[in-house]
Design brief:
about 20% strand; 3 domains; alpha/beta; single chain; Endonuclease, Chain A
């Protein structure tokens, strides 16, 4: 005790003040930061705060909250209640459908997390041709009679998207109710976004930024809580969803044009009951941003499953800050643990949390053929290094890592289990998609979607190179160091 008192006596008043504040911050952080947070995220935040309290505390106050509060939270809660009310009398799957034990468990889990049952859907195609996909969307929009709803993480005007915007204008001019949602943080860095805003305003098409941040309008929130969904619905009857943003495949970068870097995406076109479910997700997001009451949605009825070539049983799986249970992570992990033969994972940004890493490596150790498709070169420096930090553990477990060749960027996001059940959509296999982003995923079984995704994965494998454990062990020390550093920062969610 005497040494402590002597130490204090040697300090000036300002040094003592700084010492008290510093330790107060650290003591409070130890008790506050871990609350309702994953252990890896807690440790990362505590490390930053304890080592650099002057920087770490403001960062935590700005970026530490993973929840949506206020009006958006109330609207999401109301929407969840309405979905439960309108679907309470519907079974998990159509009455004339029998799912395998594992698939039935996954469907039930998804419904318990979101309230949305599985429904029938007609698969019109899973498209991988970038400009061809946009052309098909235009074709369907030109047939619209009542509504066209567009929701994009990135939407920018350029020579590739010009025809899509023209299709929206044509629909608007003939009296179709066109509505557009755009994530401003995802889009602002592209010059075509600012041109698009002027174009939409001039045409009179209603649009709104999702989760806007504005000092002028006093709208403040965590900047990296984003709406990452990509949805286009027409008349509540036909819908497109997947990984494609509405921008040219080179993402409006001169360097990308010069080196031939293009994004490789996949989008699905479906019709039937599932289109209404996707339209409902759009309606909730629109209401959250525009203050309008939800558009009247038809009661979600059940139609018998047709065992036709294009018939499918699907389930819409929304996720994001509006859901406290991380529906996508739980469903993905459930599927992984159910795998007995083959597991296909396609994700441009693969930064799993501890639970998913354990699930995937356990599957590999159990003898399941686990195929992970990633990029040879990432378009995001920090994420790329964080992703690479997991490769050694995956390779040691027996996971086969296929790297899609640079300079192209594989941007598709899907997973297939035992060639029987699949998830497909906007969600990456990373902690950002699990905790920070609003995502949309389609769970598919009993139909043509799953084998089509298997075929696409096979196409990716033909173009990719396998990463061996021997190759990976030879990487430079500097790369290993960066991988470890950015693995730590990736946990700051």
């Amino acid at each position: 005790m005497e040494w402590f008192l002597g130490f204090v006596d040697d300090l000036s008043w300002w040094q003592l003040t700084i010492l008290i504040v510093d330790y107060s911050i650290k003591i409070i952080a130890i008790g506050v930061v871990p609350e309702n947070r994953h252990p890896s995220s807690s440790m990362a935040w505590l490390l930053v705060i304890l080592l650099l309290p002057v920087i770490g505390l403001p960062l935590f106050l700005l970026l530490g909250s993973q929840t949506i509060t206020g009006r958006r939270n109330r609207i999401q809660a109301l929407a969840n209640e309405l979905i439960l009310e309108r679907t309470k009398d519907l079974p998990d799957v159509p009455s004339n459908v029998t799912l395998g034990k594992n698939s039935a468990t996954t469907v039930r889990l998804s419904r318990n997390l979101t309230g949305i049952p599985s429904v029938t859907a007609v698969n019109h195609g899973v498209y991988t041709d970038y400009e061809g996909t946009i052309a098909r969307m235009i074709e369907v929009i030109d047939q619209a009679k009542r509504t066209v709803h567009v929701q994009m993480y990135i939407f920018a005007l350029d020579p590739v998207t010009e025809s899509f915007v023209q299709a929206l204008e044509r629909a608007h001019e003939r009296g179709v109710a066109v509505k557009v949602l755009i994530d401003p943080i995802g889009s602002y860095k592209y010059r075509g976004y600012w041109k698009l805003k002027k174009r939409l305003n001039r045409s009179g098409i209603p649009w709104h930024p999702m989760l806007p941040v504005s000092i002028v309008k006093l709208t403040f929130r965590r900047l990296d809580l984003r709406n990452h969904r990509k949805i286009v619905t027409v008349d509540g009857q036909v819908a497109f969803m997947g990984s494609l943003n509405m921008i040219e495949p080179e993402y409006q970068r001169k360097k990308n044009h010069k080196i031939g870097r293009q994004w490789v995406d996949a989008m699905i076109e479906v019709s039937g009951e599932v289109a209404l479910h996707l339209d409902t997700v759009f309606a909730i997001d629109w209401t959250s941003e525009e203050f309008d009451p939800p558009e009247e949605q038809p009661v979600m009825e059940r139609h018998p499953y047709s065992h036709s070539e294009h018939g499918n049983i699907v389930q819409v799986l929304p996720s994001g800050p509006g859901y406290t249970t991380m529906p996508n992570l739980r469903v993905f992990n459930d599927m992984i643990y159910a795998a007995t033969k083959r597991l296909i994972v396609v994700s441009p940004y693969f930064v799993p949390d501890e639970s998913m890493l354990v699930a995937i490596t356990s599957a590999a150790y159990a003898g399941v053929r686990v195929e992970l498709y990633v990029n040879e070169e990432s378009d995001q420096f920090m994420v790329g290094h964080a992703q690479q930090s997991y490769y050694q553990e995956l390779l040691d477990a027996g996971v086969i890592i296929y790297r899609y060749p640079a300079p192209k960027i594989l941007h598709s996001k899907f997973m297939v289990v035992d060639d029987e059940i699949a998830v497909f959509g906007s969600s990456n296999m990373d902690m950002r998609s699990f905790g920070l982003n609003y995502e949309i995923t389609l769970l598919a079984t009993n139909g043509s979607i799953v084998p089509r995704l298997v075929d696409i994965a096979n196409e990716y494998r033909e173009l990719s190179s396998e990463l061996t454990a021997e190759q990976w062990k030879q990487r430079p020390w500097g790369q290993r160091y960066l991988d470890s550093v950015f693995r730590l920062t990736s946990a700051l969610v």
